User: Fold this.
Amino acid sequence: MTKQNFTPIVSVVIASYNEAQRLHSVLQVLTTHPHLSEIIVVNDGSTDNTCEVLRTYPIINLTLPINKGKGYALEVGVRHAKGNILFFCDADMTGMTHAIIDEMLLPVTQGQVDVSIAMQHRALYRVRSLLLFTPLISGDRVLTKKLWNRIPAYYKHGFRIEVGINFYARYTGKGLRGKAYTELSQAIKEKKYGYIEGFKRRLFMMRDILVTIFYIQFHDIPSLMRHHRQLLTRRLMLFNYSVSVLCIGTGVGIVLLRTIPPFNHILSALSIGILLILSHIPHFIFTFLMSIKNRKQMYVDMREKKGI
Assistant:
């Protein structure tokens, strides 16, 4: 087990936009945890009574005049954070416990990985091995500030940030670890904002994630991986990305059906599977076609280049 050469100081950063009704649940847990050094809540241009709620807790309140998006709000919070370990937590998360927080902190504070992620326990994740292949899109995560500072500004906007963190943890850091918890839950956007506005926000989030995945594949993917990718034909690449886009479209349709009570629980796992697994078909194929030896050498070369 690798040990850290510093005493961990954990800073919690929460980006909150119109979450006054749901902030109590998460703040009551965080403010009573003994190992969290500071709690920073970035009020991202909220128009509800978020400020009044925050005054009742011993936290650092940073208020933005207008809504700038999750990634930007987190960046503002990190700039004010004193800790070398960051704990990002969704403002609308329910079911968080001290035991879950301790389990999330352990692998990062001990230097085993750079990112530890807590997932909601969806039907898809009952097959634990699928967590190795699905992109872990969750706002509840612990990571090192060193990794955060390594991530380009492009990813620190909107919902790009979780995809960016995952990528840089895997290819320039010590990796990441995720676990699904039955205790965790979150209000869906359609419930928080109404069907039309909530669905618009869901589409915006999905678009942000999908665009970021494609951006990584064509821009930030390591040069050694690009070299291996050239071994594949353009026809294969076009086919796989076409399938991915088709699956995303199908996923949007399933999300629509989720709002109809009879289909809500049945289609929840299917929507997650289609949006998260099938949208990464190209990545799976390219990774599979690489030899284990070349992949290991690629990571070693990159880490030496980054001076890690």
Observations:
- The chain is about 50% helix and 15% strand.
